[in-house]
Task: inverse folding
């Protein structure tokens, strides 16, 4: 039972590792994930995945009814992880090889890219356990798939297979199971070779978009660009572009 | 000319009943609907539909030009109905067997689920009558089908057939006309058997999502969950889940 | 190198005209466009397009690295154009016959309608030049195509062909290249014949939707309607409707 971290150059891969329980997260695992997400200094791209064919079955709820007073703390740590994932300044990729349920689904959906195996699925199964949605579902889903499908998914808790999830805009790409590692590596390497300042600036703008008017967004993007253009990568890329076009 | 209410266990069905005018709503009908929506104490699932093959042709505008000063009051009551429909703590299903136009379309679209017969259609026909959109169209459509399609629908007022409406995420499901009642009943019964506290909590979160940051949504969901988990349904469901998985 | 304006009755067509550089916009061209957008008094429908098969390659970045201090002013004028385009009270149509990249893509996407030739494409290529997104991309794309696809497009900068852009809700319609002029003319004439008050009122509501709660939107729509119904077009249209239905 662990959260494993492998660093490979600028690409960091975090693996949720409790395959006998579909990687359902104990409090200790959430804490380990939180720590991992706050120590990514050399990382340019983050990949998160699950061991043994599942992505993550959500928070482990065994023991919860014996100690209901623990709920606020338990939700707090999982929420901090989902929020930290979303606010990382580097691009994030969820590699989803199998079931992603409850908080496990939302941890994946909070990433910038979600690549899934053909037989993976996503389930907001809260309502099926008599619970209300949490871990960001009510915020993420309407913005990913629109109000109508978000309501269906949250109020019924049905599984959505990866191909349907792709059709409705919930995820980025579906690949055959044996091509998933390769597809994620290829994407991660591509992101690794882009300008970190440009990616961080773009993410910052995307992360705040729902709190801004169009005019405010234009101003924020302009202020952002004034900083980003001072990066060496911007100079190199603009020079290359101008040479190509001249 | 009436608004009919049938209660069947915890499932309440409201029928807009003026089939000779495609169930176009008079002021009296809007008032009757408003009253019905404020008296749903035993209801666990609400279904709304129209009599005689149409859903609802919108507000009856005959007489409006003879008495333009009545417009504010007339819009006020229809707006209160659309808002009440959206804010109900129980799941709502629009059963759309035929045309849903103007305020009639938006009354349906404000529901959590919209099931439509194959030859039903939706039309924001305001602009075709020289009017601006109302009854919530400008808010609902961008969040259902995205900015691009929302602008096309609102600025042109064209009919959208049920299959196209499904493709663009406006509605939940399309069924053959003779299967519509059965499909709605099946969905209503399924929702009836879920925890009212979980459904109400989930709706509350979905209804406020566009006013919150991601961090605020996570906090609100957590506070909500602390209440919902005290419901007997949560205990039963979590126990059943733990037994199944152990 | 120019921005050309042709007025034909109430339909104004603006052409970005620098075909040797894919209509990449110099500061002077942005200023000319800004002036054109503030002088549209007789216009009922605005069409914007590019000369020579391209739509617009974005802002011309040659010379930028020699004078980086000019960036704030350069972004300011292009931002004012994109914002003005979005806030025009008349319907706007982008006629996209070929590449639309960077600020050129977002100038098109800020229009109400986007009609594109089959081999046109859209590219948020900022990140490929080491730059952060600007010209409204971070605001427009999540609302057009959802969070997931917006992140992919902004963080990778790939081209999206017109058919894919249509599938994901980014644009309104795809037509064969030799039918593009005709399709735009037909749409422009149709919009020209609708009530300007109804169209302006509807656009005002759509433009402010992301800053309002549902209740606020209902109230704003009602207040708006009280004004719009006083227009002669509303009277004519409602009368015609009542005659038809009686």
Result:
């Amino acid at each position: 039972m662990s959260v494993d971290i492998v660093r490979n150059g600028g690409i960091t891969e975090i693996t949720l590792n409790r395959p006998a329980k579909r990687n359902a997260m104990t409090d200790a695992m959430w804490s380990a994930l939180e720590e991992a997400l706050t120590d990514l200094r050399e990382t340019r791209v983050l990949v998160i995945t699950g061991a043994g064919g599942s992505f993550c079955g959500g928070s482990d709820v065994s023991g919860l009814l014996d100690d209901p007073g623990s709920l606020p703390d338990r939700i707090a740590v999982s929420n901090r992880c989902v929020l930290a994932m979303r606010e990382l300044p580097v691009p994030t990729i969820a590699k989803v090889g199998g079931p992603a349920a409850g908080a496990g689904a939302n941890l994946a959906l909070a990433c910038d890219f979600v690549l899934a195996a053909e037989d993976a699925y996503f389930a907001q199964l809260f309502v099926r356990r008599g619970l209300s949605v949490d871990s960001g579902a009510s915020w993420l889903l309407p913005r990913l798939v629109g109000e109508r499908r978000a309501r269906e998914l949250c109020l019924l808790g049905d599984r959505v297979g990866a191909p349907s999830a792709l059709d409705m805009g919930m995820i980025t790409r579906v690949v055959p199971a044996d091509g998933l590692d390769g597809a994620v590596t290829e994407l991660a390497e591509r992101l690794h070779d882009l300008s970190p300042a440009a990616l961080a600036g773009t993410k910052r703008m995307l992360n705040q978009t729902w709190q801004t008017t169009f005019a405010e967004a234009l101003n924020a993007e302009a202020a952002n660009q004034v900083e980003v253009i001072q990066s060496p990568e911007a100079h190199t890329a603009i020079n290359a572009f101008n040479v190509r076009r001249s």
Summary: The mean pLDDT of chain A is 95.
